[in-house]
Design goal:
The complex is a heterodimer of chains A (238) and B (322). Chain A has 238 residues and is an alpha+beta fold. In chain A, 35% of the residues lie in helices and 22% in strands. The chains are: A alpha+beta (238), B mainly alpha (322).
Chain lengths: 238, 322
């Protein structure tokens, strides 16, 4: 008896093509809608796009198989479940873009303690990012060296326990899962209504000396101008 | 508050998933490539089955696969289903995520001033892999491996390698077709068949990865990480804390050295090494993937054995370096 060819919609190859296509869509759409800048370090971005393209290629090959002349396999229950789950996940990922709270994430993580072992090249003060400043201060612990230097930085407001909020950034080595915060204390102007956590700010000012919580002195940013800004397109720093 | 945290967990989930999927795809493609270039996988069965040489050979194969632990699972599954000696397959599964050029290079890039780590990490990984292979080798395969993997594996093993009671074919049970299949010349699978197999494998593993990433993301957002590192300088506690962190964080072995860099100054050297050794063997994201190979008993043994070995190595390093 010749095997019965299942109707088109029940062919396993078509289901596989659909599931793979959905995963390819997740990867490719993530690569173009800017969310990778929020989730992954930049070196991984091409890898994601490439994987998306490869998956799309395999999906197209499966689609060709589904319409081809060869013997057709009928999709079973496990394949149906895979297809349904993939579709549900893909739909959720596509419809609900990530909106993490950096302050919430940073609040639970230990500070980044990386110190530049040797600074071969130091940018002029006004061009240093928040991360550059934090690393520089860690490798040169004498606060008086930098007092009076001009500062132009941006970051998000990170509430601190027992002291005023800091301006912070997240450092990411791989993906958001390994993000660790770095922050600079800010001498907030008197009478300034407190900014909410997660608010992104651009601050112009100078470095000044202030009291450290444990006694002694530490450097803090003394702002001359504070501007709320939208979250930058690439909020994570390597 | 809870909504903010859930939103953060959702972003962590997407980060973990999207970062791991390309590596999973690489692993599946390598596994498919092996089926294409060496149909029947006769070379797999020629790997040494010596209790020590087997795992060492498997571990050394890691140099041929520049992928991290997610990509490793499909390849190890392919090895085991192709009839490779258990020790060699397990040695590969557990050591290859560390013993590959990319991971060694990234460890060196992260810790150029700590040459001991560059030697201790691969050595430790081999030790852990050999110990786990010896430990899991004590359990009969039928109790250790998942049923479908075991069935595929039996097809490729010479009949003599399987105990009489473990056979479902041959002299006892079903017709001996499977016993003969190992003898006939292997046929290269048609490309369509190969694609079908790889697609199914990828889809299945991707869903397992989703599950693992969901758990890892939830645990990460609801368990504050700071208290794990609070134990800092205590020799034993810091090792245990960092082992727990490695289980929770679930980042790939190719990048975990850079993550370790961020807290290396706060913890003991033994704890640092423990973090770099345990993560590639087992973590929350991997549990569901490893469930494709092992029965629950195997998973528990793997976790317990790896934890014990890593703790011992960490302690020893602390005695030596502190």
């Amino acid at each position: 008896m010749a095997p019965v060819t299942p109707p088109l919609l029940q062919r396993a190859a078509l289901w596989r093509a659909a599931s793979l296509g959905l995963w390819a869509l997740v990867m490719l759409y993530s690569s173009v809608d800017g969310r990778l800048d929020l989730l992954l370090r930049a070196v991984f971005h091409p890898l994601v796009a490439l994987a998306g393209l490869l998956l799309l290629l395999v999906a197209l090959l499966q689609l060709r198989l589904a319409f081809g002349p060869g013997r057709q396999e009928r999709g079973d229950r496990r394949q149906a479940r895979t297809l349904l789950l993939t579709a549900a996940i893909a739909l959720l990922v596509l419809l609900l873009p990530p909106a993490p709270s950096f302050a919430d994430l940073a609040g639970q993580r230990p500070r980044d303690e990386t110190a530049e072992s040797e600074l071969s090249f130091v940018l002029p003060p006004a061009q240093r990012s928040l991360t550059d400043w934090v690393r520089l201060l860690r490798s040169q612990p004498d606060p008086k060296l930098f007092a009076g230097d001009p500062v132009r930085i941006s970051g998000f407001v990170l509430p601190m326990e027992g002291e005023p909020p800091q301006l912070a950034r997240l450092l990411v080595r791989c993906c958001l899962a390994d993000a660790s915060p770095v922050g600079l204390p800010v001498h907030w102007p008197a009478g300034q209504a407190p900014f909410p956590a997660d608010q992104w700010l651009a601050i112009d000012g100078v470095m000044g000396l202030g009291p450290a919580p444990g006694g002694g002195e530490r450097l803090e940013v003394v702002p001359s101008r504070i501007r709320p800004i939208p979250r930058p397109a690439r909020p994570l720093e390597p | 508050m809870i909504l903010t945290r859930l939103a953060t967990a959702w972003a962590l989930f997407q980060g973990l998933l999207i970062e791991a999927l390309p590596f999973l795809l690489i692993g599946v493609l390598i596994s498919a490539g092996a089926r294409w270039f060496a149909p029947g996988g006769r070379w797999l069965r020629r790997l040494p089955s010596h209790p020590l040489l087997g795992p060492l050979t498997g571990a050394a194969l890691g140099f041929a696969l520049p992928a991290c632990e997610c990509g490793n699972v499909p390849v190890a599954r392919r090895m085991l289903s192709g009839g490779a000696p258990l020790g060699a397959g397990l040695g590969f599964l557990f050591a290859a995520p560390v013993l590959n050029p990319i991971v060694i290079a990234s460890t060196w890039a992260a810790f150029p001033d700590q040459p001991w780590l560059l030697l201790a990490r691969p050595l430790g990984a081999v030790l852990v892999a050999v110990a786990l292979a010896l430990l899991l080798g004590l359990v009969p395969e039928a109790l250790l491996l998942q049923a479908d993997l075991l069935a595929e594996r039996r097809l490729h093993q010479p009949l003599a390698a399987v105990g009489l009671l473990e056979r479902s074919s041959g002299l006892v049970g079903a017709p001996p077709a499977s016993a003969l299949s190992a003898e006939v010349a292997p046929v290269r699978p048609p490309l369509a068949e190969l694609m079908k197999h790889a697609s199914q494998e990828f889809l299945y593993l991707a869903l397992l990865l989703v599950m693992g990433s969901v758990i890892a993301a939830l645990v990460q957002s609801f368990v504050p990480r700071s208290w794990l590192l609070a134990v800092g300088g205590a020799p034993t506690l810091s090792i245990l804390a960092l082992m727990l962190l490695a289980l929770v964080v679930s980042v790939c072995s190719s990048v975990d050295a850079f993550l370790a860099l961020s807290f290396a100054a706060q913890v003991t050297p033994g704890a640092l090494l423990a973090f770099l050794l345990l993560g590639p063997v087992i973590d929350l994201k991997l549990v569901s993937l490893l469930g494709l190979l092992f029965r629950p008993r195997g998973l528990v043994l793997t976790t317990a054995g790896a934890a014990l070995m890593v703790l011992l190595i960490g302690q020893w390093v602390n005695l030596w370096r502190l």
